[in-house]
Amino acid sequence: MKAVLQRVTRASVRVDGEIAGEIGPGLCVLLGVARGDGAADVTRIAEKVARLRVFDDENGRFDRSLLDTGGAALVVSQFTLLGDVSKGTRPSFTEAAAPEDAEPLYEAFCEALRVLGIQVETGVFGARMAVELENDGPVTLVL
């Protein structure tokens, strides 16, 4: 499982021109599910995302998490994170989980964040989406 986190002041995702999910301050999470991922991966990444201290405290230091700030998460499925470009000029996606395996884990990840107390908005799994965000910092991390 691979996740790209972007600290945002706002983010939204559109499908067919309609907003599917939208948040204010928080994290935009692009989530890729790999072959062989399972429930333990979902739990580990969700807990890391919820508790990762990437928000400023009163001294401007990274010392606050989504849980501390009450921030939200916009979670967007993105199998292309598992793309391998080591050979040739066309990415290979053989490491990405098949959609029928990836979707339940994507949904479980979103639910795991909700159980931890995070407000979660989502895109639409498998759809062509337009993600718009205002990266705060900018702060971008890869898990």
Keywords:
single chain; globular; six-stranded mixed beta sheet; 143 residues; alpha/beta
Secondary structure layout:
Layout: E1 2-15, E2 18-23, E3 26-32, H1 39-51, E4 55-56, E5 62-64, H2 66-69, E6 72-77, H3 99-115, E7 119-122, E8 130-142
Parallel strand pairs: 3-6, 6-7
Antiparallel strand pairs: 1-2, 1-3, 1-8, 4-5
Helix pairs in contact: 1-3
Please sum up the structure shown.
The chain has 143 residues and is of the alpha/beta class.
Overall description:
The chain is an alpha/beta fold and 143 residues long. Helix content is 24%, strand content 38%. It contains 3 helices and 8 strands. The strands form 2 sheets. Strands 1, 2, 3, 6, 7 and 8 form a 6-stranded mixed sheet that branches. A two-stranded antiparallel ribbon has the order 4-5. A hairpin with a 5-residue loop joins strand 4 and strand 5. Helix 1 (39-51) packs across helix 3 (99-115). The relative contact order is 0.30.
Termini separation (Å)?
8 Å
Give the mean pLDDT.
Answer: 97
- Helices, by number, come to 3
Helices and strands, in order, run as EEEHEEHEHEE
How does the helix and strand content classify structurally?
alpha/beta
Rg value = 15 Å
Strand content: 35-45%
- Specify the helix fraction band: 10-25%
**Contiguous runs where pLDDT drops below 50 for at least 5 residues:** none
Shape: globular
